[in-house]
Amino acid sequence: MLSNARLGALEHRVTSTDRILSAAPFSHLFGLYSLHVAWSAGAAVVLLPVFSPPELALSIERDKPSGLWAGPAHIAACRALGLFEKYDFGSLKLAILSGSACPPELVRWFQAKIPDCAVIQLWGMTETQGALYTRPGDAPDVAASTAGRPSPGTEVRILKPDGSPCAANQEGELQVRGCLLFPGFFDNDAANQTAFTADRWYRTGDLATADAEGNVAITGRDKDIINRGGVKFNPRDVEDLLDAHPKVLQSAIVPMPDPVLGERACCFVTLRPGASALALEEVTEFLLLHNIAKTKLPERLVVVPEMPLTPTRKIIKRQLKIPA
To answer: Do 204 and 229 have their domain in common?
Structure first.
Protein backbone atom coordinates (compact mmCIF):
# COMPACT_ATOMS: atom_id res chain seq x y z
CA MET A 1 0.00 0.00 0.00
CA LEU A 2 2.72 2.47 0.94
CA SER A 3 4.76 1.85 -2.21
CA ASN A 4 1.63 2.33 -4.31
CA ALA A 5 0.88 5.62 -2.52
CA ARG A 6 4.48 6.86 -2.74
CA LEU A 7 4.47 6.37 -6.50
CA GLY A 8 0.96 7.80 -6.70
CA ALA A 9 2.01 11.01 -4.96
CA LEU A 10 4.46 11.66 -7.78
CA GLU A 11 1.82 10.96 -10.43
CA HIS A 12 -0.73 13.21 -8.66
CA ARG A 13 1.95 15.92 -8.22
CA VAL A 14 1.42 16.06 -4.46
CA THR A 15 4.27 17.74 -2.52
CA SER A 16 5.08 18.74 1.05
CA THR A 17 3.38 22.11 0.49
CA ASP A 18 -0.03 20.51 -0.08
CA ARG A 19 -2.97 20.12 2.29
CA ILE A 20 -5.11 17.02 1.67
CA LEU A 21 -8.77 16.67 2.66
CA SER A 22 -10.72 13.41 2.29
CA ALA A 23 -14.50 13.30 2.27
CA ALA A 24 -14.18 9.51 2.39
CA PRO A 25 -13.63 8.01 5.87
CA PHE A 26 -10.25 6.59 6.80
CA SER A 27 -11.90 3.23 7.48
CA HIS A 28 -12.31 2.94 3.70
CA LEU A 29 -9.41 2.22 1.37
CA PHE A 30 -9.95 5.40 -0.67
CA GLY A 31 -9.79 7.58 2.43
CA LEU A 32 -6.79 5.61 3.68
CA TYR A 33 -5.06 6.22 0.34
CA SER A 34 -5.30 9.98 0.95
CA LEU A 35 -3.38 9.51 4.21
CA HIS A 36 -0.78 7.28 2.56
CA VAL A 37 -0.22 9.80 -0.24
CA ALA A 38 0.01 12.72 2.18
CA TRP A 39 2.46 10.90 4.46
CA SER A 40 4.70 9.82 1.60
CA ALA A 41 4.93 13.41 0.34
CA GLY A 42 5.14 15.09 3.74
CA ALA A 43 1.88 16.92 3.08
CA ALA A 44 -0.57 18.10 5.75
CA VAL A 45 -3.92 16.39 6.32
CA VAL A 46 -7.10 18.39 6.88
CA LEU A 47 -9.57 16.41 8.98
CA LEU A 48 -13.30 16.25 8.30
CA PRO A 49 -14.85 14.58 11.40
CA VAL A 50 -18.14 13.62 9.72
CA PHE A 51 -19.24 14.16 6.14
CA SER A 52 -22.17 16.36 5.31
CA PRO A 53 -22.33 18.55 2.20
CA PRO A 54 -22.30 21.86 4.14
CA GLU A 55 -19.46 20.69 6.42
CA LEU A 56 -17.35 19.67 3.42
CA ALA A 57 -17.95 22.97 1.63
CA LEU A 58 -17.23 24.96 4.80
CA SER A 59 -14.01 23.05 5.45
CA ILE A 60 -12.77 23.70 1.90
CA GLU A 61 -13.45 27.43 2.23
CA ARG A 62 -12.08 27.73 5.78
CA ASP A 63 -9.15 25.30 5.79
CA LYS A 64 -8.12 25.82 2.16
CA PRO A 65 -6.97 22.32 1.18
CA SER A 66 -5.15 22.02 -2.12
CA GLY A 67 -6.17 18.40 -2.65
CA LEU A 68 -9.58 16.75 -2.27
CA TRP A 69 -10.39 13.02 -2.19
CA ALA A 70 -14.15 12.58 -2.77
CA GLY A 71 -16.76 10.21 -4.12
CA PRO A 72 -18.99 11.30 -7.01
CA ALA A 73 -21.95 11.31 -4.62
CA HIS A 74 -20.16 13.82 -2.35
CA ILE A 75 -19.82 16.22 -5.27
CA ALA A 76 -23.37 15.56 -6.51
CA ALA A 77 -24.77 16.30 -3.05
CA CYS A 78 -22.90 19.62 -2.87
CA ARG A 79 -24.11 20.51 -6.36
CA ALA A 80 -27.73 19.69 -5.50
CA LEU A 81 -27.62 22.10 -2.56
CA GLY A 82 -25.98 24.89 -4.58
CA LEU A 83 -22.89 24.89 -2.34
CA PHE A 84 -20.46 25.64 -5.16
CA GLU A 85 -22.15 29.01 -5.52
CA LYS A 86 -22.17 29.68 -1.74
CA TYR A 87 -18.64 28.67 -0.77
CA ASP A 88 -15.13 29.26 -2.13
CA PHE A 89 -13.55 26.11 -3.60
CA GLY A 90 -10.69 28.07 -5.17
CA SER A 91 -7.90 26.58 -3.05
CA LEU A 92 -8.23 23.21 -4.78
CA LYS A 93 -5.51 22.28 -7.25
CA LEU A 94 -6.24 18.54 -7.32
CA ALA A 95 -9.51 16.62 -6.91
CA ILE A 96 -9.50 12.82 -7.05
CA LEU A 97 -12.89 11.19 -7.59
CA SER A 98 -13.34 7.52 -6.74
CA GLY A 99 -15.33 5.05 -4.67
CA SER A 100 -18.17 4.52 -7.13
CA ALA A 101 -19.08 4.92 -10.80
CA CYS A 102 -18.57 8.53 -11.85
CA PRO A 103 -20.98 10.00 -14.42
CA PRO A 104 -18.99 11.84 -17.13
CA GLU A 105 -21.43 14.75 -16.96
CA LEU A 106 -20.61 15.26 -13.28
CA VAL A 107 -16.86 15.33 -13.95
CA ARG A 108 -17.30 17.90 -16.72
CA TRP A 109 -19.54 20.04 -14.51
CA PHE A 110 -17.12 19.85 -11.57
CA GLN A 111 -14.15 20.73 -13.77
CA ALA A 112 -16.00 23.74 -15.17
CA LYS A 113 -16.77 24.94 -11.63
CA ILE A 114 -13.10 24.82 -10.55
CA PRO A 115 -11.17 25.38 -13.79
CA ASP A 116 -7.79 25.78 -12.05
CA CYS A 117 -8.11 22.36 -10.40
CA ALA A 118 -7.04 19.07 -12.01
CA VAL A 119 -10.05 16.76 -11.65
CA ILE A 120 -9.01 13.15 -12.06
CA GLN A 121 -10.68 9.78 -11.70
CA LEU A 122 -9.19 6.87 -9.79
CA TRP A 123 -10.23 3.23 -9.78
CA GLY A 124 -9.22 0.82 -7.08
CA MET A 125 -10.46 -1.77 -4.63
CA THR A 126 -9.65 -2.74 -1.06
CA GLU A 127 -7.54 -5.48 -2.65
CA THR A 128 -5.52 -3.07 -4.80
CA GLN A 129 -5.64 0.52 -3.50
CA GLY A 130 -4.94 2.90 -6.44
CA ALA A 131 -4.73 0.74 -9.57
CA LEU A 132 -5.85 3.11 -12.33
CA TYR A 133 -6.08 6.87 -12.53
CA THR A 134 -6.03 9.73 -14.96
CA ARG A 135 -3.23 12.26 -14.65
CA PRO A 136 -3.18 16.03 -14.29
CA GLY A 137 -2.89 17.38 -17.80
CA ASP A 138 -4.98 14.64 -19.43
CA ALA A 139 -7.55 15.82 -21.96
CA PRO A 140 -10.93 16.68 -20.36
CA ASP A 141 -12.70 13.80 -22.12
CA VAL A 142 -10.15 11.30 -20.80
CA ALA A 143 -10.69 12.44 -17.21
CA ALA A 144 -14.48 12.53 -17.65
CA SER A 145 -15.01 9.17 -19.32
CA THR A 146 -12.19 6.88 -18.18
CA ALA A 147 -10.37 5.75 -15.04
CA GLY A 148 -7.08 6.41 -16.77
CA ARG A 149 -4.00 4.25 -17.01
CA PRO A 150 -2.28 1.82 -14.60
CA SER A 151 -0.40 3.20 -11.63
CA PRO A 152 3.38 2.64 -11.66
CA GLY A 153 4.21 -1.00 -11.00
CA THR A 154 0.71 -2.15 -11.96
CA GLU A 155 -0.35 -4.36 -14.86
CA VAL A 156 -3.91 -4.66 -16.14
CA ARG A 157 -5.52 -6.78 -18.81
CA ILE A 158 -9.08 -7.12 -20.12
CA LEU A 159 -10.23 -10.58 -21.17
CA LYS A 160 -13.20 -12.08 -22.97
CA PRO A 161 -15.18 -14.86 -21.24
CA ASP A 162 -13.09 -17.44 -23.14
CA GLY A 163 -9.88 -15.96 -21.68
CA SER A 164 -8.63 -14.30 -24.86
CA PRO A 165 -7.58 -10.63 -24.85
CA CYS A 166 -10.13 -7.99 -25.79
CA ALA A 167 -9.49 -5.68 -28.70
CA ALA A 168 -9.48 -1.90 -28.20
CA ASN A 169 -12.85 -0.65 -26.91
CA GLN A 170 -14.16 -4.21 -26.46
CA GLU A 171 -15.74 -5.00 -23.09
CA GLY A 172 -14.37 -7.76 -20.90
CA GLU A 173 -13.31 -8.58 -17.35
CA LEU A 174 -10.62 -6.40 -15.82
CA GLN A 175 -7.73 -8.26 -14.19
CA VAL A 176 -4.86 -6.75 -12.19
CA ARG A 177 -1.46 -7.74 -10.84
CA GLY A 178 1.58 -5.94 -9.49
CA CYS A 179 3.26 -4.71 -6.31
CA LEU A 180 -0.01 -3.09 -5.17
CA LEU A 181 -1.96 -6.35 -5.05
CA PHE A 182 -2.95 -7.98 -1.76
CA PRO A 183 -1.61 -11.52 -1.28
CA GLY A 184 -5.01 -13.15 -0.84
CA PHE A 185 -8.06 -13.59 1.38
CA PHE A 186 -7.14 -14.69 4.88
CA ASP A 187 -7.93 -18.31 5.69
CA ASN A 188 -10.22 -18.65 2.66
CA ASP A 189 -8.72 -20.98 0.07
CA ALA A 190 -12.00 -21.31 -1.79
CA ALA A 191 -12.21 -17.56 -2.37
CA ASN A 192 -8.58 -17.40 -3.49
CA GLN A 193 -9.09 -20.21 -5.99
CA THR A 194 -11.87 -18.17 -7.60
CA ALA A 195 -10.29 -14.73 -7.28
CA PHE A 196 -6.89 -15.48 -8.81
CA THR A 197 -5.89 -17.00 -12.12
CA ALA A 198 -3.18 -19.64 -12.29
CA ASP A 199 -0.61 -16.94 -13.13
CA ARG A 200 -1.70 -14.74 -10.18
CA TRP A 201 -3.80 -12.14 -11.96
CA TYR A 202 -6.57 -10.88 -9.69
CA ARG A 203 -10.05 -11.18 -11.19
CA THR A 204 -11.72 -7.92 -10.15
CA GLY A 205 -15.24 -8.78 -11.32
CA ASP A 206 -15.41 -5.36 -12.99
CA LEU A 207 -16.18 -4.99 -16.67
CA ALA A 208 -14.03 -2.57 -18.63
CA THR A 209 -12.83 -1.38 -22.01
CA ALA A 210 -9.50 0.16 -22.99
CA ASP A 211 -8.87 2.62 -25.80
CA ALA A 212 -5.86 2.63 -28.12
CA GLU A 213 -3.92 4.84 -25.67
CA GLY A 214 -4.48 2.44 -22.77
CA ASN A 215 -7.08 4.50 -20.93
CA VAL A 216 -9.44 2.11 -19.16
CA ALA A 217 -13.15 2.80 -18.75
CA ILE A 218 -14.99 0.84 -16.06
CA THR A 219 -18.30 -0.16 -17.61
CA GLY A 220 -19.94 -2.07 -14.76
CA ARG A 221 -19.87 -5.15 -12.59
CA ASP A 222 -20.24 -8.64 -13.98
CA LYS A 223 -22.92 -9.37 -11.35
CA ASP A 224 -24.89 -6.25 -12.36
CA ILE A 225 -25.57 -7.61 -15.84
CA ILE A 226 -29.31 -7.92 -16.58
CA ASN A 227 -30.46 -10.91 -18.64
CA ARG A 228 -33.73 -9.94 -20.31
CA GLY A 229 -35.00 -12.91 -22.29
CA GLY A 230 -31.49 -13.99 -23.21
CA VAL A 231 -30.42 -10.46 -24.19
CA LYS A 232 -27.81 -9.38 -21.65
CA PHE A 233 -26.94 -5.76 -21.04
CA ASN A 234 -24.91 -3.66 -18.67
CA PRO A 235 -27.02 -0.82 -17.14
CA ARG A 236 -24.07 1.49 -16.42
CA ASP A 237 -24.59 3.77 -19.45
CA VAL A 238 -28.30 4.07 -18.63
CA GLU A 239 -27.51 5.04 -15.03
CA ASP A 240 -24.97 7.64 -16.19
CA LEU A 241 -27.63 9.25 -18.37
CA LEU A 242 -30.27 9.16 -15.65
CA ASP A 243 -27.92 10.87 -13.21
CA ALA A 244 -27.93 13.81 -15.64
CA HIS A 245 -31.75 14.04 -15.64
CA PRO A 246 -32.84 17.39 -14.13
CA LYS A 247 -35.00 15.65 -11.51
CA VAL A 248 -32.64 12.80 -10.58
CA LEU A 249 -30.00 12.92 -7.85
CA GLN A 250 -28.96 9.25 -7.95
CA SER A 251 -30.08 6.22 -9.90
CA ALA A 252 -29.51 2.48 -9.80
CA ILE A 253 -30.87 -0.19 -12.14
CA VAL A 254 -31.25 -3.72 -10.80
CA PRO A 255 -32.73 -6.92 -12.20
CA MET A 256 -36.22 -7.92 -11.09
CA PRO A 257 -37.59 -11.44 -11.58
CA ASP A 258 -39.95 -12.00 -14.50
CA PRO A 259 -41.83 -15.28 -15.14
CA VAL A 260 -41.52 -14.95 -18.92
CA LEU A 261 -38.24 -13.16 -19.65
CA GLY A 262 -36.36 -14.24 -16.55
CA GLU A 263 -35.36 -10.69 -15.63
CA ARG A 264 -36.50 -7.16 -16.35
CA ALA A 265 -34.92 -3.85 -15.38
CA CYS A 266 -36.14 -1.95 -12.32
CA CYS A 267 -34.90 1.60 -11.85
CA PHE A 268 -34.49 3.13 -8.39
CA VAL A 269 -34.00 6.90 -8.12
CA THR A 270 -33.69 9.60 -5.51
CA LEU A 271 -34.90 13.04 -6.55
CA ARG A 272 -33.05 16.35 -6.46
CA PRO A 273 -34.20 18.78 -3.76
CA GLY A 274 -37.36 20.56 -4.93
CA ALA A 275 -38.00 18.20 -7.84
CA SER A 276 -41.60 17.25 -8.53
CA ALA A 277 -42.77 13.66 -8.89
CA LEU A 278 -41.11 11.58 -11.59
CA ALA A 279 -42.97 9.09 -13.81
CA LEU A 280 -41.62 6.07 -15.67
CA GLU A 281 -42.77 7.64 -18.95
CA GLU A 282 -40.54 10.67 -18.30
CA VAL A 283 -37.60 8.39 -17.69
CA THR A 284 -38.06 6.32 -20.84
CA GLU A 285 -38.68 9.40 -23.01
CA PHE A 286 -35.49 10.97 -21.69
CA LEU A 287 -33.47 7.81 -22.41
CA LEU A 288 -34.91 7.38 -25.91
CA LEU A 289 -34.05 11.01 -26.62
CA HIS A 290 -30.44 10.10 -25.83
CA ASN A 291 -30.48 7.04 -28.13
CA ILE A 292 -30.70 4.30 -25.52
CA ALA A 293 -31.89 1.04 -27.11
CA LYS A 294 -35.44 0.05 -26.22
CA THR A 295 -34.22 -3.31 -24.92
CA LYS A 296 -32.31 -1.43 -22.17
CA LEU A 297 -35.20 0.73 -20.98
CA PRO A 298 -36.27 0.23 -17.35
CA GLU A 299 -39.71 -1.31 -17.03
CA ARG A 300 -40.40 -0.21 -13.49
CA LEU A 301 -39.56 2.95 -11.55
CA VAL A 302 -39.23 3.14 -7.78
CA VAL A 303 -38.60 6.53 -6.14
CA VAL A 304 -36.92 6.20 -2.75
CA PRO A 305 -36.07 8.91 -0.19
CA GLU A 306 -32.45 7.77 0.00
CA MET A 307 -30.17 5.07 -1.36
CA PRO A 308 -28.36 2.50 0.78
CA LEU A 309 -24.77 3.71 0.62
CA THR A 310 -21.27 2.59 1.56
CA PRO A 311 -19.03 4.99 3.55
CA THR A 312 -17.86 6.45 0.22
CA ARG A 313 -21.52 6.87 -0.81
CA LYS A 314 -21.50 4.10 -3.37
CA ILE A 315 -24.95 2.58 -3.89
CA ILE A 316 -25.35 -0.89 -2.38
CA LYS A 317 -27.57 -2.44 -5.03
CA ARG A 318 -28.17 -5.68 -3.18
CA GLN A 319 -30.02 -3.73 -0.46
CA LEU A 320 -32.53 -2.21 -2.89
CA LYS A 321 -35.79 -4.05 -2.32
CA ILE A 322 -38.32 -4.15 -5.13
CA PRO A 323 -41.83 -3.51 -3.71
CA ALA A 324 -44.38 -6.29 -4.20
So the answer is: no
